[in-house]
């Protein structure tokens, strides 16, 4: 038996790992684990066989013997722990899925825990997304035990790294299927996973989950959420990249890790985009042009129902945005304006960054409408402005905001300044110095406004800016204010809450101590070298190497600059050439000469001065003498550092020049845009004026046409009446035609004599000049007799036909009129009445015939 064991131990490790006897495999796994834990570096030869052939570990984690499997998974954990990112990336694609399928369903608790540890190492050494993507499909497995174990593993992953490091979108989408599982253990673990996610995500999780669950499950989850509401979970494990960032931050700020604030989880990630372009009512634009406000309100309500979805698919909404902007700016009904603002808010929240292209269309209309004092309208407009701001950047909206802070309406100035305060509270990057100056100048002008709410809003804005940039930087902007205004600004400064923090000046880089003789680098570790990335990680400027110093000079260094103060204890040289303090150093680098200070704190006379970059400012001769003790490799490395510094300086200068050029171009474009906007406004006014003038001319033309039509109708009617009279006169017998003509002429003469002077003057306008002199010469002549009747009949021939016999009767009548006898008039009247009677009798006889 002993011989057989000796034979097994003499076999190569690779053969023993794949041996058919489980005990042989178990001892091989233990030997692997021992080699990994005692390896000198990540590049140790013991890792090479297993990284070159990842299928070996696939067989190890799926070992049929549970005892050997547990030891094999433990060896995998050791390989990942000491093999680093290279081992993780080589093994992950092959090992993760079989590891989860076999390890998470094991009957041994140790195997399950080691499996979870291995999964956590796969995440820590690189990124969590590939591991989570491998685990989520396993949740659809038919084996409830495997689904339960995978759910537990996901919960541990979220608990250890947090939902801000591990993207929860895929996990949340898989939860409804887990809650609908027939196995109660799966449902229970799904509830635990959901509660863990809720600790990190808050109420955002409810939006994408609760609607798909049963009412009983919703109630249970709500109770569980209430029990953990308000808890602040802490990330227990960090990715390797996060650890490196924290180490660099620790070295720069002297032990305090200044972590950047993580972005909040976006609920939009859990929703699918909805295409609403085809769902907009077809008669929307027609109803928006209606004169009735109820029709416009109903059209807006229908649109709001369509756009009220969490996420919108991007499309061309330019025409729709112009309609909404026009409604907000010009509609007289505040109810329609409120719904239009709600629609803009829904579009901005649904499109997010895709709404930025519509900001120039609606933003100024929203600011202009802030003059409304009704609370519901101002709240809707404010919400729409905030949503539009979230889709753009602070610099994009600042110009318009500053312009409307000078508005003549106090309500607009107040609400615009309050909107500026909201923007300052939400931004994460401190505005540029020029932007801060523009805001402070605008707020300073508003501090002297006659309206108290405007002054209060301006003080709040300046207090918020002070909270963002600090009291010292704010001093030049408030030193000219009186004590009352300064007090208001300080009050708002104390209560303001901002997310953007003032930038902290990085302290100068410190020099690392000389490594002790006993602290040697591990075997196989590469020599530390400088790189461009290392230069950037330093304190803003490329450091310079220092030469060797003698032991006596080193011992003469004052206590204030001892090695214990230069670097924290336990600092060691990393493989990348960057120590735990984040400062570039070489193994044998230390100050070239001791730095001493006098009792007054000033350097002694003759001490070498150093610039901001740490490079000696002495002459070239002294510099060359100070580096005379350097080796050739160190001199080459120093020359490389200097070249890198020169490249860095030249690159910085080129970037600064490019930035200045872009700023100049941006200023020119802004001026061009302002001129085009002014020209567009003038063209719109001219167009409106021309349209109104055309409409007025069209109205006059329509009225003139109507009058012409009426006049033509009247003329036609008169012509028809005259033709009827002429036909009636022609039907009278020839024996009486002369007398009838006489009577008609006399009646016509009487009618003309009774015409008013005004009418007579109008009639004369239509007569020739020679007739105007003779017409209506005297009132007596108008009543005289036949001569006048003959003259009038000859002139008014168009009114009644006069025959030759009528002319003779007119001569007789003229003679009687000249005599002026009253008796003649009486007889003429009797004759006339007799003639009329005879005419009537003759007409009656003709009718009888």
Radius of gyration over all CA atoms, rounded: 51 Å
- Kindly name the structural category: mainly alpha
Report, as a whole number of angstroms, the end-to-end distance. Answer: 163 Å
Low-confidence runs: 251-262, 505-627, 754-820
Number of helices: 38
The main β sheet shows up as: none
Q: What's the number of extended β-strand segments?
A: 0
Strand content: under 5%
User: Oligomeric status of the shown chains?
Assistant: single chain
Could you walk me through the main structural features you see in this protein, from its secondary elements to its overall organization?
This protein is mainly α and 849 residues long. α16 (293-307) runs parallel beside α18 (334-351), α19 (359-368) runs antiparallel to α20 (375-390) and α24 crosses α26. The chain has helices at residues 2-10, 13-17, 22-37, 48-52, 55-61, 66-103, 109-124, 129-135, 144-161, 169-179, 184-201, 204-209, 215-228, 240-253, 284-288, 293-307, 318-330, 334-351, 359-368, 375-390, 394-404, 410-426, 433-446, 452-469, 471-478, 483-495, 532-537, 551-555, 563-566, 620-626, 632-730, 737-753, 757-764, 769-774, 779-784, 786-795, 804-819, 822-848.
Short description, anyone?
The protein has 38 helices and no strands. It has helices at 2-10, 13-17, 22-37, 48-52, 55-61, 66-103, 109-124, 129-135, 144-161, 169-179, 184-201, 204-209, 215-228, 240-253, 284-288, 293-307, 318-330, 334-351, 359-368, 375-390, 394-404, 410-426, 433-446, 452-469, 471-478, 483-495, 532-537, 551-555, 563-566, 620-626, 632-730, 737-753, 757-764, 769-774, 779-784, 786-795, 804-819, 822-848. The radius of gyration is 51 Å and the shape is elongated.
